[in-house]
Amino acid sequence: MTTFMLWIHLTAVVVGIGGLGFFLLILLPSLGVLSTEQREALSKAVAARFRWVSWAAITLLLISGLYNIRRYYWEEAWGKSWLLLTFKITLALVLFAIVLGLTIPLKAFDRLRVRRRTWLVVAFAMGVVVILISAYLRVG
Ligand code: HEM
Question: What is the pLDDT of residue 2?
Answer without folding.
Answer: 85
